[in-house]
Every structure is written in structure tokens, then in C-alpha cells.
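Box 3.1 A note on notation
Throughout this textbook, protein chains are presented in two layers. The first layer is the amino acid sequence; the second is a C-alpha cell string describing backbone geometry. Keep the layers aligned when reading.
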Amino acid sequence: MDNIYPCEELISAAYYNSTKPFEFKRIKGMIWYFCEQYVKHKGKTHPHDRWTRIDWTNIINNLQFCRDQRGDMIQELSIENYKPMIDYHLTKADYKLRVPCDYSFKFFMSGFVRGHCYFQGVILVRK
């Protein structure tokens, strides 16, 4: 299997140009965790090979906040929230969409998805 991780230099450059919501090593660890879990649960390398520094900068800039499941309220996230959110996204989430879901990191970061994963993977687990 190909290298499962994105280019560290690319993510480092993106981090340098970002709002730096969390420490670099914690962001990198979370991205590496996502890639490892993607391979484990999807059986293939994550499709990040065509992403640019701008793609990664946008992702990093948006890590600290997400919209709730309805797309209304903004929820502040901590880096610790991401592991259970990723686990939920890759193992339990069933997005009832009209188009196929590739479960990629870009999809995970889009629209309501992180809000849904936060509610299902973090909030409900606490109750």
C-alpha cells in the first residue's frame, strides 16, 4: 500500500499560513490518525495526494469550530474531540445522501458532517 500519510512539509506550510487553532503536532497527529483509521476501515489509502497547501490551510483554519447538525449554531471544538468524531465518521455514520459518500477528510470537514459526528460521537457518548 502507498504511503498513507499526506506530505508533512505541505501540512507544515499550510499550518504556517493558517490561524493556528491548535499546536502543529496535535493537528498532525489528528490527521495521521484519520489516515490510519481510513485505511483500517475502508481498506484503501486516503485520497489526499492531489490536495494543495490552500486545501490544507482551509482545513486547519476550520478545525476549531463547526456547525451543529442542523447547520445553525456554531460549536467550538477542542482537538481532543476529533478522535471520537473520526471514529464515529468512519465506523458508524450512515449519511443518507443522494450522492455517494467517500468518507474522505474533506467530506468530514464539510457542511454539517463534523457537527453530526460531534453530536453522535462526543455528546451522546457522554450521556
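The longest strand covers residues 65-67. The chain has one domain: 8-126.
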